[in-house]
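Attaching the record inline, Q. Sequence:
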Amino acid sequence: MENSKQGHFPMRHGIKLSKKHSPKTDEELKRMLEIPYTSAVGSVQHVVQCTRPDVTYALSVTSRYQACAREATIADFTTKAEYIASLEAAKEAVWMINYIQKLGVVPSIAKPMVIFCDNNGAIAQAKKLRSHHRSKHILRHYHLLKEMVSRGDARMDRVS
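Structure, as predicted:
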């Protein structure tokens, strides 16, 4: 590093991105909605890996904001997010089973519907009938998943 040459750096070091850098007018918002953010970050990653390693810092700063600010599920923990997502999947699965049974189209429809999840904590939370101290932060109405699993309407399995 001592013998390295000083060169052009594509982004000023120490820049702090904040909400004030986000679009404010309707025109800016409309323009930003047309840009697929994850695709743009992916394109920059390709440039970094294949041609221009000097833009790595710029990529690391901008890719911090890869998640959508308008996410449907907001959770403090991944277990909670997976648990809530599994509940939504189970509700749709139970609705679908009931709908198909009422139509009488598929008489051999399997019950319970299997919900696959990749989070061991969410699976354990759904299968246990009692709550414990680590699940106090999960709101009561999300525990419908436990009831669905105990009634046999849905079954939680690990994705392998």
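The chain has six helices and two strands. Residues 76 and 137 are 9 Å apart (CA to CA).

More tomorrow.
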